[in-house]
UniProtKB/TrEMBL annotation:
This is PadR family transcriptional regulator. It comes from Catellatospora coxensis. It comes from the Bacteria. PANTHER family: TRANSCRIPTIONAL REGULATOR YQJI, TRANSCRIPTIONAL REGULATORY PROTEIN. Residues 11-84 form the Transcription regulator PadR N-terminal domain. Residues 96-182 form the Transcription regulator PadR C-terminal domain.
Length: 185
């Protein structure tokens, strides 16, 4: 099995949804796949080259006027077989390591100044999640304006996005509870 297995499979899913260049794929990661799996443009290009060498994807050179040619990637049969095998494997529950939660528990052993600093950190953390939720909701309105008209693939994309939306809402509710508790100490 290859290293970074999950990235290869995220790329295969994206290319099956729509073939594209490395640049287009990286933009899709930034715009939608990045909601649940992050990768830098450099990581994506590196993995695409390895997947092409392994026969999982094929690339076609496409000429462009006034710009360098681009390579458009599609999933080859060995890549589809690898994805099918992976899709049928059981998924292990993720191990949660949450540094902020440990800091919150540790606040019981800190003074008022330390708790005030923690409140500032929780507020910053909350603002980040608020931004993420707004981005998800904007993407939902943009990409899924009429859920009744979605095909099977779009419905599955939408249910993943809804999971991200609900996760962010849950984190925000928890952070509000944390802030309320810290202010009451």
């Amino acid at each position: 099995m290859m290293a970074d297995v999950a990235l290869e499979h995220a790329i295969l899913v994206s290319l099956l949804e729509q073939p594209g260049s490395g640049y287009e794929l990286a933009r899709r990661f930034d715009r939608s796949i990045g909601r649940f799996w992050t990768a830098t443009h450099q990581q994506i290009y590196k993995v695409l080259r390895r997947m092409e060498a392994d026969g999982w994807v094929t690339a076609e050179e496409i000429g462009q006027d006034g710009r360098p040619d681009k390579r458009c990637y599609t999933v080859a049969e060995p890549g589809r077989d690898a994805l099918t095998g992976w899709l049928r494997e059981p998924v292990q529950p993720e191990t949660v390591r949450h540094e902020l939660a440990v800091k919150i528990r540790g606040a019981a052993f800190d003074d008022a100044a330390g708790r005030a600093a923690l409140i500032t950190e929780v507020e910053r953390y909350r603002a980040d999640h608020e931004t993420t939720l707004r981005r998800y909701l904007t993407g939902e309105q943009r990409d899924f304006p009429d859920p009744a008209d979605l095909d099977a693939g779009q419905r599955l994309q939408h249910v993943v996005l809804r999971g991200g939306i609900e996760y962010e809402r849950m984190v925000l509710a928890w952070l509000d509870d944390v802030l309320h508790t810290l202010h009451d100490l």
